[in-house]
Structures are given as structure tokens and as C-alpha cells.
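Recap from last week: sequence in, structure out.
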Amino acid sequence: MDLTSLLDRHGTGPVLAAGGAVIGALFGFFAQRSRFCLRAAVIEFWHGKFAEKLSVWLLAFASAVIAVQALILSGLLDVSGARQLANRGSLSGALVGGLLFGAGMIMTRGCASRLLVLSANGNLRALLSGLVFAVTAQAALAGSLSPLRAEIASWWTIEGGAARHLLERLGGGAVDGLVLGLLWLVVAVIFSLRSGNRPWMWIGGIGTGVAVALAWWFSYLVSHSSFDPVQIQGVTFSGPSAEWLMRVLSTQAAQPFGFDAGMLPGVFAGSALGALVGREFKIEGFKNGYHMARYMVGAMLMGFGSMLAGGCAVGAGMTGGAIFALTAWLALAGMWAGGGLMERWLAEPVQTTQPATQRAPVVVPVAP
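Predicted C-alpha cells:
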């Protein structure tokens, strides 16, 4: 049965949701098995340790870029209608939002996608942080934080189209994007070989990036086969988190089912399967009140920052980065910078004196 028949029989919404669930499950499974995490990669980078966490992220990012640009070159994908390129964008929002998101992900020990993956593994800290993230994202989208988001986004804007396409601004095209992706892949392979990555690190990293490309391709296929207008899109977590929050709170406020509605539970299920396969399911909570407060503040920074930047570490960083949206690359740069600054600020000071219990004993001379 082809895609057109499925759309005629079941409708556009259910088909998009089913596809989102399958692609989300692939993303969740591969991300869980590979420990895919931008926060961990940022920490390794700023500490000058180019090891397995950074190599996994580079494998995923390079794979997403290569797959997306290859689809574009082959004529199987056209991303000119994607909101990251077609719509008017905000450079100030991308930069400020990226900085806030990067700082927040250090405080919560994971970006938005990582929180969902860890929640499915029994991590209650990630589950509560993810809820705070979703509430803040919704408040920034259409709630009390919306005016502040709109104000910051208005500081420096850019027109949609070629002006927002990084490669076109530089006089390049999909071939150049493919070459850049291959170069990043070479770097990722070198780092992986040096750090001795286990097989799942390789498979999971590449699989995570391919899942991002599959989302673009699938939504594009549906948009060309459906009589209903369909916005092509990729994997992201800020918008879907806010959407699912409203679905839980009110059926009247919920949007029709689509790709995002299926993607989020798919990621959760895929990650849970990965945890069961690896025997890594474990209930974890907060250590103390300080850690809980830090996680909550970090989640709020990520929720507001993601809506300001136009996406999370995956939505803006990988999904938008793979199509070379200028705002996505600026947001990604902000995340790396914000994460590095917050990591330095939270780093525990180096102990320069020995604890009292470890000090050398004082020898008092006794007169003969």
C-alpha cells in the first residue's frame, strides 16, 4: 500500500502521527544507546577533552547533514518551504535564546531531548525538569512570557528565503553542504577512534542523525501526497512538549494530531526499549533541595530559550542546522557558548589546601 492510499484511507493527521511515532522511536532508541547529549559534548569540548561524548554528537550531526543534503541533491527533498528558511527569522532571538538554552541544559544535566530520553529510563529528575520545560515553553509561546519573547525577537530580524539560508548567503549549495558534512564525519571518526567508542556509540550516533533526516523526508513526502496543506518539518522537542502539555490540560485547546503528536511518545517508547535492552532502567531522584532548585531554574531557561531561538538543541541545532538555516546555526553557537560559560560558573573551586583529616601530622620535638 503506497502513501497516497494510506492518506486516503486514514487521513493526513493519523498518517503524520504514525510516521512521527516510528521516527521518534528510532531517535529515542539510538539516542539512548549512544548516550547522545549536547550538554556532555559541550563540557568535553570546553575542557579540551575530545572524547566519546563529543564524538557521538559529531557523528549524529554529520550524519544528519550528509543525509539531508544527499536527499536534496537527489531531488527527493525540498526544504525551501520549511519555517526555518521560508519565514521571517530573528537573529537576536536565536543568539539570546541559544545562550539561555545552553546555560539551562548545563544546570539540568541534559537538553530537552535528553530529559525525555532519561525520563523513559526512570529518571524522576529529568521527568520533573521536562514538565517545567514544557510549562515554560508554553508560557513563552502564548502565555505570560510571550511579550518578553516577542520583544527580544524584534531587536534584530532577517527576511525569509535566500537571506536566511547560510549556504546561499555564502554562494554555495547542497554540494558544499554535503562536503562539509563529510568533513565533520571524518573529524567524528577520528575522535571516535581515539576515544575507543563502543559499537553502540557508532551505531547510535549515526542512527540518531539519520532519524533527523528521515523526519524531513517523511513530512516532505506527505506534503506532496496529501490534498491538505502540510508543513514540512523535522525532529524538535520544544513545540511538541508545549503541544502535549495543552493536550493533557484541555481537549478543547489541543491541536489536531500530526507529526509532533506522534513523535514525542515515540521517542519515549524508543528510549524505554533501549533502557530495557541495555538493562539500564533505574529509578533516580534529587539528591537535595539545592539540586532540585538548580534543575528547575535550568528547565525554565531552556523552555524560554528554546522558544526564543526557534527550537531546542535538536530542533534548532541538528534539524535546522542540517538544512543550513542561518538562525539555527546562530542558536547552536549560542548553546555552545552559553553551556561553556555556565559550566565554568558552576565548576567547583579547586581545593588548594588539604582537609584537616588529611594533613600531615605535626611532629613536636621532645627535649632529651
